[in-house]
Amino acid sequence: MWSISNESQVGSGLWRSREWIQRADPSRPTTGTYHNDGSMDVAVRHNPITEGEMSQLEGRSASP
Amino acid sequence: MIWDECWCIWQDIWGDATEIRLDPGLRDYYISKLPPIYGHFMKSPVVQGTQIWAWSDDLFLLPNAGIEYGRGDTPERYTNEAYSVPGRGVAGDAQWGVVDGWRRAKPEFWHTKKLHSPVKASEAPLPVPDGTKLAISVENQYDFLDLSELEAAWRLVGPAGLAGNAGLAGAAEPIARGSSRAAAPPHDGHARDRAREATRGGRGAGGGFRGPGGRVLDSFRWVFAGAPPPEPNFPRASPKALQTYRTEMLNGSTSLIVGNGFEIGFNESTGALRRGVGFGQSLLRALPTLHISPPEIQRNPAPPRTRGTSGPSPSRKLGIRIARAWPARGRLPGELRPHDLPDGTIATHANFIYHGPEFLAREIGLVFAVPEEADELRWDRRAEYGVYPADHIRRPRGEARAFDAHLPKIPPIGPGRATTRRMAPTISEARSDS
Fold this sequence. Notes:
The complex is a heterodimer. By secondary structure, chain A is of the alpha+beta class.
C-alpha cells in the first residue's frame, strides 16, 4: 500500500501524486491521512480514537 | 480502513513530563483503556490495520546542542542532568517510542507486546481443578496458524515451587475470535492434590506459548478462585493467647495488646498507634491509613494525610467515611477477637467507602510509617497482566530498596525506565515468577 501523506489534507498536488503512483504501481492500493471520504482506495482515520467513532465510521466503509 | 497513530504514547511533550517524573506509575494508564479498543479492531469488518507513532524516541545526540527537543515549553525533562553540560546535547521531537534512543524497552513496550499478542488467554481466576484437567480459555488471533501448531506448556505452582507440568491439548483454528477451550492433562494424574497444595499457598498455575522456531509468544499466570493471598515471610511467633492491658500514659489511656514477642498499643481516644514493637525491634510507627492526594496539591511535598481513628478525618472535606476493625477494646471502634487468632497474630482490616461526588486524585492508597531501618519493600499486587519482566515498573511481584542513589549517568536512567533490554520472559521464567 502506498501512503501519499501523513497528517495532511489532500490537495491537488498530492492528488496528482496519487495518480502518478497508480500509474507507476497499479498493483497496490493508495491512501492518505485525513482522507476518509471514500475517494481513496483505503480510508485512513487519524488519532484520537474512540469506540463510538469506530462504530460510526465502520458503518460508512465497505468491507474489503 | 486504516487507523493511523492510534497507539501513540503521549509523554514528555504535552506538559506531562513533571507528572511522569513525580509518579512513573502513570505509565500504567497507557494500557488501561486499550484492550477494548484492540478488541473492537479485531472484530471490525473493515479495519485492515493500525499504526503507532513511533517505535523509537525521536531524539538524537547532538554535541553542544544543549537540550533542544520537544514542542513549546516543556519545563522538566529527565535528561536535563545528563545533557545540559558543555560538549553534550540532545535534539529532536518527542520521547514517544516504546523503546528509547538506546533501544531499551520502556514499560509501554511490554504493554504493547501483551496487547498485540497473537494468542490471548484469559487470566481470570480459575476454578480449582477437580480431576485431571485444567481448562484455560484461549483465543487464537493468528491468520494462518492453528493453535495446535504452537508449543504450549503450563505448570501448577505451589508453596514449594513447581508442582507438576503438562502440555496443552486442544486446538483453535486461525482467527478463532470466539474463545476456545483447551484441556491440559497433567502428566501423572495427580492434578487435584497438587491444585489443592497450590491453592493453600495462594498460588495457581503459570504457562505460555512458543511459536514456530521456539520463540516465546506470550506467558500467563493464573490464580485459583478462592485462594488466599500469599502470606509475607515473617518470623512466626509460637502460639500464645493474646493478653490485653490498659495503661495510663502522658498522652492518654492506652490499650496494649501483648503477644509472644510483640506488643502493640493504641490511644483509646484517637486510635493512634502508641507502641508497635516485635522481636526486639520497633516495627511500626503509624498504622496504615487512607492517603488521597488531590491534583491541586500535586507538587506539595507534604500532602495532608488522613490520621486518627474511624470517622471523619482531615479528609472530612472530601466526605470520606472510614470504617475500620481495630484490634482494641473499650471505647475504640471496632473489635478484637483474639479467639479467632490462635497463632498469636493480629489481623486488621480496613474499608474506605467514599460517597461523595466524583473528584480527581493523583494518588489514592494507604500510608503507614515504619522505622528508617525498614528500607526494603516487597509487594504482591494486582496488575493488568499476570506476567511482566522482572524489571518492569508494574510487575505485580517484586522488591525495591528505599533511598536508592540516583546519579546522573549516560545513558540516563529515566523514571520507570528499564535498565536492561528485556523483550519477553521465557516460559521457565514465567513459571518461576508465578
